[in-house]
Amino acid sequence: MKVESSDGETGTVISLPPAVFPTAKAPATGGESEREEEELFVPPLNFAMVDNGVFRSGFPSFANFSFLQSLGIRSIVYLCPEPYPEANVEFLKANGIGLYQFAIEGTQHRTGCLVGCLRRLQRWCLSSIFDEYQRFAAAKARVSDQRFIELFDVSSLKHFPLSCSCSNR
């Protein structure tokens, strides 16, 4: 899963159920006396599946921690140059989640560029790549980011598989 700062991408969530997922642990409301408690799982802003076992999202907050736990994620790739907040680091440590930081500067849509380059490796057509990029970037889409994706040289990476599928967990 990748996370990004709060000034990052905006757009719609794809390939997922509604934004709130009930299970078991928060106070019940009014006429629900049979249910003792119910916990709400709230995904981070712009959460979506990129490939099997690979997700993207905006920067998670405390409200998103239960949702992230439910995924059983093993690592987070953080693309921002700013230090990762201590509260989030503690959450990662407590859950055995690795943090890998790559301080990418010069674009607000780090995730969009990274996913766009992955889509090039997966041999998506450029119109589909740009459509996905624009759905998440919304009004903040940059022509320079799309140009970067278009000019990304996949030839040196031809020996990698076409899918980054993580189905063999």
TrEMBL record:
<dbReference type="GO" id="GO:0016791">
    <property type="term" value="F:phosphatase activity"/>
</dbReference>
<dbReference type="GO" id="GO:0005737">
    <property type="term" value="C:cytoplasm"/>
</dbReference>
<dbReference type="InterPro" id="IPR004861">
    <property type="entry name" value="Siw14-like"/>
</dbReference>
<keyword id="KW-0378">Hydrolase</keyword>
<dbReference type="Pfam" id="PF03162">
    <property type="entry name" value="Y_phosphatase2"/>
</dbReference>
<dbReference type="InterPro" id="IPR029021">
    <property type="entry name" value="Prot-tyrosine_phosphatase-like"/>
</dbReference>
<dbReference type="InterPro" id="IPR020428">
    <property type="entry name" value="PFA-DSPs"/>
</dbReference>
<protein>
    <submittedName>
        <fullName>Putative tyrosine-protein phosphatase</fullName>
    </submittedName>
</protein>
